[in-house]
Amino acid sequence: MIVLRLALQSLSARWLTALLSVLAIAFSVMLLLGVEKVRNGARQSFADTISGTDLIVGARSGGVQLLLYSVFRIGNATNNMTWQSAREIAALPEVAWTVPMSLGDSHRGFRVLGTTAGFFTHYRFRGDQKLVLSAGAEFSDVFEAVIGADVAAALGYEIGDSIVIGHGLGSVSFIDHGDKPFRVAGILQKTGTPVDRAVIVGLEAIEAIHVDWQQGAPVPGQGVSAEDVRKMNLTPQSVTAMLVGLKSRLAVFRVQRAVNEYAAEPLSAILPGAALQELWGLVGIAETALAVVSAMVVVTAILGMVTMILTTLNERRREMAILRSVGARPATVLGLLATEAGVLTLAGAVLGTGLLYAVLATARPLIDRAYGLSLPLTAPTSFELTTLSGIVVAGFVAGLGPAFLAYRRSLADGMTVRV
Amino acid sequence: MPGDAAGTPVVAMGAVRFTWPGKPRFSLSIDRFDVAKGERVLLVGPSGGGKSTLLSLLAGIVSPQTGHIDVLGTNIAKLPGAARDRFRAEHFGIIFQMFNLLPYGTVTDNVLLPLSFSQQRRANVAVNGTAADEAARLLQRLGLPGDEIARHRASSLSVGQQQRVAAARALIGRPEIIVADEPTSSLDRARQKEFLDLLFEEIEAAGATLIMVSHDEALAGLFTRCVRLDDIAKIGWGAA
Asked: Is B121 on the interface with A (CB under 8 A)?
C-alpha cells in the first residue's frame, strides 16, 4: 500500500531522530525490565540459599539480622551464644540435628565459617541440593579447610595449598593467624549461595587459632605453637549461630518458643522462610522506589518521542495537506501519526528487551562472581510481557496527541500548503 | 456569462457564506458561481483575497456555514466530513502552488497516491492497463519521459518538474474536476505557457473541467473564461 510505504519513507527520511527516540525507549525498557529481572533474581537466590533448616538460633536480635549474618554472611553478630546453650538446645527431644556456626574471621576478604562436619550433611540449598566436593575431601584435621568454588576460582587455590586466616573481616587483615596456617583439603562445587565465598573450617580450628589470644588480640610472648594446640581441649566457649533441624516440622513453633524463652541467656530462634518474608517487607520499599523510577524513565522516553513527533509536525504540515488533498480522511492522518508513535515504541520495546537479554547473557558470570547473584536467562514472564505491551499501547496513545494536533492544523490550513 | 448554456453545470454554488474556524473576522460570501462541464475557468484576484478559501470550499476541504455547493449534482455542503473526503478523492485532482509532492517518495508513488483513496479512479486506470503504466504515460505526456525519472525521489526534481508530477497526480484516474491553486507562479513565463499547454491538452483528452486561480490576469487568454473574484464574492473583514 502506497500510503503505508510513504509513511515508512517519511520515517526513514527522519531516521536519525527516529533512531534516537527508539534508543531512548529501548534503554528505558531495558532499565525497567532489568530492575525486574534483578529483583526476581535476588529474591530467587535469597530464597534458594537455605532450605531444609527449620530454625536458626542465635543471640537475641531481630530475625532479619540473624538471618543475614548467619546465612548470608552480611553484617555481624551483635553477640555470640554460649556453647552450653547450643548443647542444651541440641539435646531437646524435638531436635534432630544442629549445625553450630562460628563467624568473625576471614581469608583475603572471604569469610571463614567454623562449623562441624554436620554442615556438609545438613545444609541444603536450591530445593534439596547438598554440598558436593569438586575436589579433595572434607576437613579431617584441625588445620584443614574446605573452600567454596568462588574462593578457589578467585585466589587460584588447589588442594594442598596453605592459607593463613586473617583476624576480623576486612580484605586486608592487620593481624593474622600466621602462626597457624591451614591446608586446603577440599573444594566445593559452585552452589550460587554464600557458601561459594566461604572458607569452611572445623569449629575447633576457630578455637585453636584464638587459643593464645585475649580480648581480640594475641598476647605477646605467650604464643602457642600449632603442634601444642592439637593437644589442648578445643571445645568452643561460644558460637555465632546454629542451624537446627527438627524431627517433625509440627514442633517448629514449640521449639522456637522454647528457645526464645530460654532462661540462661537471651536467644532468638527464627524460621528462615518467615525471616525472608520480613526481609522482603523491608526491601519492598526500595524495590517499589526502583520500579517507580524506572517507570518514570519510560514515561520520559515516551515524552521524548512525542516531542520528536511534535517538532517534525511543522515540516509535515505539507505531508498532511497533500494527503488531505488526495482524499485522505482525518482518520488516516490521525492513524498514520499514531501508528508511527506505536511503531517507534514497539521497536524500542523489542530492541530494549533484546539488549537486556544480550547484556544478561554476557554479564551473568560477572554479576554472579561480583555479587553472588545468579540471574537466570528465562523467557519474559507474563508480567513483563504485560508491561511491554502496556508501554507500546502508551506510546500509541501518546502519539494520538500530536496526531490530533496535526489533524486540527490540516483542517485550518485548508488548501494552503504551509511550510 | 457564468454557466455556459452549452455545458451541464459541474459546479453550482449559491448563497454561500463561510468563515474560518477561529478566525471569525474574515468572511467569504458567494451569491452565485457556476462552472459548466469542460470549461477552463481562470479565477483572478489579489493575494489574500479569498481565492484559496474558495478552492477549499469547492474541493470540500472546508464546509460553508450556509449555502449550497453542488458538484456533479451532489451538494457537498451537506455531506459529513468523511464523505466529503471520499467525494474529493473520487472527483477532484488538485495542484498546489508549490510543495506538491511528498519529497521522500518516488515520482511514481507520488503520482499513484490518489488511487489509494479512490475506487472509481482505480477502475478508470485499470481499463487501460496497470496503474504504473498509466503513471508513466501521463509523465511522458507531461514531458517527463523515461523509467529513470519515475524512480527518482520527488525532492530531486526541479520545481518545474515537480509541478508536472503534481499535474500527473491530479490527472491520474480521470477525475472530473481539476483544481489548481496558482500552479505556475513558481515558474518563469516561458515555462508557465509550456506547463499550461501540456495541462490543457491532458485535461481536454480526459474531458475534465479546470478551475484555476491566479493573481496573474495575463494568463486569461488561455482560458475559456476568466472570472474576477471581486465580481462573484464578497470578502468581509468586519466583526462577524
From this structure: no
Strand partners, B95: B180
pLDDT at residue A268 in the model: 92
Is A19 in the same domain as A142?
A: no
Contact between B90 and B60 under an 8 Å Cβ cutoff? The reply is no
Q: Is the pLDDT of residue A419 over 50?
A: no
Exposed e or buried b per residue across B111-146, where buried means at least 16 C-beta atoms within 10 angstroms of its C-beta: bbbbbbbbebbbebbeeeeebeebbbebbebbebee
pLDDT above 90 covers a percentage of chain B that reads 10
What is the spatial distance between Cα A131 and Cα A191, in angstroms, rounded to a whole number? 8
The tally of CA atoms less than 13 A away on the side-chain side of residue A409 is 22
The answer for A226, left when phi > 0, alpha when psi is -120 to 50, beta otherwise, is alpha
Rg of chain B in Å (alpha carbons):
18
- Range 322-381 of A in CB contact (< 8 A) with B: 322-331
pLDDT for B91-108, tens place per residue?
999 888 877 788 888 888
Which pLDDT band holds residue A78 (cuts at 50, 70, 90)? confident
| Of the residues A283, A311, A327, the one at which a domain ends | A283
Q: Rounded to 10 degrees, what is the CA torsion of A19, A22, A26, A28?
A: 120
Question: What is the pLDDT, as a whole number, of residue B3?
Answer: 41
pLDDT of A184: 92
User: Do A59 and A183 share a domain, yes or no?
Assistant: yes
Residue A40 and residue A93 in one domain: no
Q: Which of A1, A322, A334, A418 to mutate to test the interface with B (most CBs of B within 10 A)?
A: A322
A96 and A245 part of one domain: yes
Determine whether the interchain pair B113/A2 forms a contact, defined as Cβ–Cβ distance below 8 Å: yes
Residue A101 pLDDT level (bands cut at 50, 70, 90): very high
Determine the structural domain holding residue A98 and report its residue range.
Answer: 49-283
Q: Minimum mean pLDDT among A254-268, B18-32, B106-120: which range?
A: B18-32
Q: Residue B151: enclosing H or E segment and its boundaries?
A: helix B147-151
Interchain pair A327, B85: CB under 8 A:
yes
Q: How many other CB atoms are there within 10 angstroms of residue B236's CB atom?
A: 14
Cross-strand partners of B78: none
Q: Are residues A80 and A212 in the same domain?
A: yes
Number of domains forming the structure of chain A:
2
CB of A6 within 8 Å of any CB in chain B? yes
Q: Tell me if the pTM is above 0.80.
A: no
Residues A41 and A125 in one domain: no
Q: How far apart are CA A188 and CA A148, in angstroms?
A: 5
Is residue A347 scored above 90 in pLDDT? yes
Q: Examine the domain organization and report whether A89 and A235 are in the same domain.
A: yes
Which three cell numbers, joined as nine digits, stand for A324? 488531505
At which of A283, A306, A338 does a domain end? Answer: A283
